[in-house]
Every structure is written in structure tokens, then in C-alpha cells.
Amino acid sequence: MFSSHYKDKVSKNIEELVVDIDKERLSKNLIKNKLTASSDNLTKNLPVSIIPNVIDKKYYDTVVHRTCSVITKALMNLLYDKEIHSQLNGSNLASLLKNYGILEKLPTVITGTARYDMAITGPQTFDNPPSLIELNLVEVGGMGWVSSLAKTYLSEIPGLIDYVQPNIMDISFAKNFRNIGRKFLRVRDDDKNYEDDILFSESMKPFGISFFTMPISKFSDKLESSEIKMNNNGVNYKERHYDGLYIRTMTDEQDIKNYSNIVKAIVESYVSMYDHPSLILLEDKSRIPLLKQAKNLKKDEIELLEKIIPKTRSLDSNFVSKLKKNPNDYVLKNTSIHQGKAVYLGDNISEKLDNIKDYKGWCVQDFVKFNSMDADVINGKNSLGIYSFDCYVNFRYDSRLREKDKLKFDVPGILVRGSQNNLVVNVSSGGYFIPSFISRN
Prior knowledge:
single chain; alpha+beta; 13 helices; 23 strands; about 30% helix; globular
């Protein structure tokens, strides 16, 4: 199915290390380390490929870091550019947030973690940066899983550490959270216990960082009754002080409507928090081309953005016929839905177009041919699959400083996911995780 995609070769050293892995033992240890399929199924491991993805150190240190740096700089400069604000209106979700005044009362400093969903198309060379597919700027998933998965593989595969760098994700995340403080009030969906969050909390404990988790409905009620008070120094609740707020939900239109009091309180209080909801406005998939309009970009930075951003346009009636005639050249996407949902390729495009009544909230992106690699999935099959290349970025942006000093950032690691069955690469859509490492040499 993916024979025409560029295939990454697995080094002989890595092949020799993984050939004799005890799958049953690895599966049991994944479960033991809470790397399970879901919070509802704690007896089945995550779908994981035994064969890891090893990224070339020079490519990672130069091309990947520079690409992520330019994207982050452009994003934050856009957010604080009032001339661009009128163009951040691609969805009903954006309209809601803007109506609550979220852009008029931006905090002077924003600290958070982003994940840029990308794709390498071809060899890992200095003139071939990864393409930018989507932006995930709030409620970023996988922060606990990816780090724990790397630790499990380093423990289970003797000799792997001789060829790859040790995992440093936890250190980077801890440093960024400590820009705000050590104690956080984390808000999650009601009645849900996320293994990813549990793993992340445990990984932060050695650094003195703790999270008190509260369901969003309870948080909303306590905020309404003034039992929770927020200000630019953090959150106070039951005589306890939290250095910051960390909201792990409220990224869709219905949540914003249901909990508008939370958004309004964040805006009015300028509460100290990790991941500010204003960033949701920049997640809109149809607005990715705006990055090239960001102020204070150098010529070579604009050229890089031109190279890595696939042509993207909002869906309208004029483009529908062209899309139906050439469905294999494009990807049809809902602008605000993530996790591989509402993404249509090939023959599925025409069928979906016939059922779309309102084109607002939909966009079309040029098709990007992801690289492929061999995958041997535990409890799955051994075959060729394509993979995504998703970069975590920890950042702190201070709008008060000089341009060259405003942004501090780090790329602590990569989330790599694969698919052996279709062109949509997402674990929730039948894909799998691929342990990711940076080579030593």
C-alpha cells in the first residue's frame, strides 16, 4: 500500500537488538508501566511497534530545532499582533473566544507546551525540513506516554543506550513548569482517568512538581460560588495556594459554551497558568498559512515557512468540483477537530462533500506523502507502515522583552505514530506508537 513512499532504513545495529525481543514480556511490562490501551482497559498494552524510530542527531539538532524555533516565533508573534486578530475567525469556536475578549486581555507572558504534527518526506538532510501538517497548542497529548515508552524500551532492550541518547523529556518539561511554580490545579473532563496524565504526574514528582486534579464541572461550580479565586499569582482553594492553573480540556465549541464562566474568569483575572486558551485560535487548520505573515521574521525564516507549509485553503463551492476530480491530491479536514477525526482522503472525500451542508469550518490541504518504515506491532502485524513526526516544544514567550529575547524554547522529544492500514496516522484511528530516539552519532 505504501510502496511509493520514501522508506527509512533501520540500521543493522538496531535490527540486531530488536530481533530477539520477547514480545510477551515486553507487553506485560508495558502494562506494568501503565502504558495501556485506555483508562477503561488496563489489561491491554498500547499498540506499539517493536522497531524504534531513530532520528539522526545532526538532523535533529539543526534542521528540527530550527524549524520548530521558526514556527514558535511566528505563532507567538501572530498572537500578539492586533492587525492579524481579525483573520483569526475561521470557526464558531474562534468567534466565541474572541467574543469573551480573550485577545484584548492577553497575558504579557505565556508558558506552555505545543506539539507540531509534522511529516518527513524523503531523506533526513539539511535541505529537507519536515512538513507542518497541524498545530496542537493546548491539551497536548502523549507527554506521559512518550517519555515512559522510551524508558521502557531502554530498560527492555539491552544495548540500545549504546546507540541512542538517554531520554531527557522529563527534565525539559519540569524546567518549563517551574517557570510558573511547583504546585498546579489541573482541570480535566468529568469522570475520566487518563493514563497519560497519571504517567506525566509521576514523572514530575522527582522534580518537586505536583498536580491536584479537579473535574471541570466541579471547577466551574466552585468558581461560580467564589470558593475558587484566581489572580496573576495563581489559584486559591480551601486555604491552599496553587502556583498555576493547568486546564486539560475545553478545546471544542461545546465545552467553551458550557463553561463560559471559566473562560471569562481566566480573561479577567490574568491567572497564572500553563497553556493559555488564546492559543486555541492558532490551532485552526485553515489558518496555518498565516504563519508566513508574522512580523519580525527574517527572509530565510519566511522561506523556511514557505517550504514546510503545504498549500492550505478554506473550503468553498468554487473548489468542490476540482476536489472531486482530483481527490488523491488533497486532504479534506475539519478545521477544529483533532485526533485524526474528520480527516478525509482519496475516495472518501467525494462522499463527505455530498454530506457537508455548510463549508465553514472545513479546509483543504495539499496531500503530503509521509515517509514509511517497517513496523512490527505487538498484538498486531509485521509490515510496512507510514509514520508522522510530531515535535514537542516547550516554550516561554515574554512580550515585554526585546524581539531577540522574547522567546525561549526547547524541543525535548518526538512523538512518532504509524499506520499500516490507511493514510490517516493516528492511534485513535487504528494506528500505533513507535518508540522514538535520537542517535548518539
